[in-house]
Amino acid sequence: MLPVMTTALSGALAYQATLDEVAHNLANLSTPAFRPTRLALAEAAEGGVIPAARRLSARPGPLAETGAPFDMALPGPGFFRVRLPDGNYAYTRRGDFRVDGTGRLVTHGGLPLDPEIRIPPDRRVEVRPDGTVVTFGPDGAEAVLGRLEVFTFDRPENLVPLGGGLFREPAGETGLTGLAGPAQPQAVVTGYLEMSAVDLTGEFARLIQAQRAYVLNLNIIRDQDRLLGEAIELARG
Amino acid sequence: MIRGLYTAISQLDAQLRRQELLAHNLANIGTPGFKQTLLAQAERARLGLWRLGDPALILPVGPLGTGTALEPAAIDLNPGPLVETGEPLDLAVDGPGFFVVQRPDGPAYTRDGTFFVDAEGFLTTAAGDRVLGEDGPIRVGNSDFSVASDGTIFVGEAAVGRLRLADLSGAPGLIRVGDNLLRPADPAFQPPPAGGEVRQGVIEESNVNLTETVAQLLVAMRAYQAAQRLGLLADSTLDRAIQQLGRWD
Lengths: 237, 249
What we know:
The complex is a heterodimer of chains A (237) and B (249).
Chain A (H helix, E strand, L loop, with lengths): L1 H26 L9 E7 L5 E8 L6 E3 L6 E2 L6 E4 L5 E4 L5 E2 L5 E2 L17 E4 L4 E5 L5 E6 L3 E2 L7 E4 L2 E3 L10 E2 L8 E2 L1 E3 L5 H37 L1
Antiparallel strand pairs in A: 1-2, 3-17, 4-16, 5-6, 6-14, 7-8, 9-10, 10-11, 12-15, 13-14
Helix pairs in contact in A: 1-2
Chain B lengths: L1 H26 L9 E2 L2 E3 L3 E5 L7 E6 L3 E3 L3 E2 L6 E3 L6 E4 L3 E6 L2 E5 L5 E2 L5 E2 L5 E4 L2 E2 L8 E2 L4 E4 L2 E5 L2 E2 L7 E5 L2 E4 L12 E4 L1 E3 L5 H36 L4
Antiparallel strand pairs in B: 1-6, 2-5, 3-4, 7-22, 8-21, 9-10, 9-13, 9-18, 11-12, 13-14, 15-16, 16-17, 19-20
Helix pairs in contact in B: 1-2
């Protein structure tokens, strides 16, 4: 009976991991630019099942209009680049930016964009579709403040999520460095945000399935335990 | 009476093995492309019992059962349901073909099309084994790709390879390698190429039938319990024979 229990235990653990993942995806149903992940399960050679690998969805979320001046969305592939406090780069598609106390354009989490863009106070600022940020002087003279660079990855699904919509390059892999794309006429859309890419119906279907499978495997463990207990009782005579 | 004990034990063995295989099927109810194990049980050979002695009096006494055993497990190759995911790296075969992947010890076969792309741009399984095309591993490189229904993979307009699909239905026996892979039990068996339409953005789910498998597991557990009782009954009969039948006072 013990192999049955370890097999069922591997099932309970795998479906628990699936449930955790689906719960995380569902919790981020309204997180801008969130990409759901999926846990791939694999049959274990010695019996049972193991979580094999996790894959980030390759599908972007839909764009929604917000009207906020520093809300930006990327209609094509690519990422904004930000600088982490430790000096490393991270990448994000989440574009609900704001201006911090020192005038820098930062993410919702307060990380500065890279290359840095400083917004002068009390000035009208405009972000052009190609990413150029311009301001207008009191006399109406135009001044360029910088350009929002869009970095593209060869295989964005291999990026490592850091939480908060941030990703970093996977360590030690080649060909995955983010490259600033050439200036494109329609790189950035202002006043729009990329919504979460979570597919509610699909996630719910997976939730129900994983929950059923989880309970089922737990029930097998319980029943086996009872059977074992009875066998011990019987042997006692 | 001792014979009865052996019969009961053969049933305990068979039902235990049956529970293990059914639990393996149930643990893999959410594994994409999983193929369930089918179980068959058969009576062990019956023996003929003859009375020996005077040659003129050699007479048949009757048949003697020797219990039961599980037959070697077969793998059910029927397809599981195909489910749309919309993910470009999810592929499924609508038809009999299996994807062929490269393992260090030779090719292995799977219906699980949850694919990844490794650092060198090759299409792999979740375990990191490269997926084979007609001309070796398929390199999709760093761009998005599309898959035609005949399995040809296009990066942009250029075809980079065609997925190899193998037909395992003729294999005399299949073994489970792990990582959702199957392999013919006879290493000399070369699976012929198979037909089938490859679909992108679709995944094949496990072909385990939940209700049926749970019912079979309950039956196996009850049969196991019944065999336990049977063993005890044989034991107590034996006990009585020893303690009471053989006693005179």
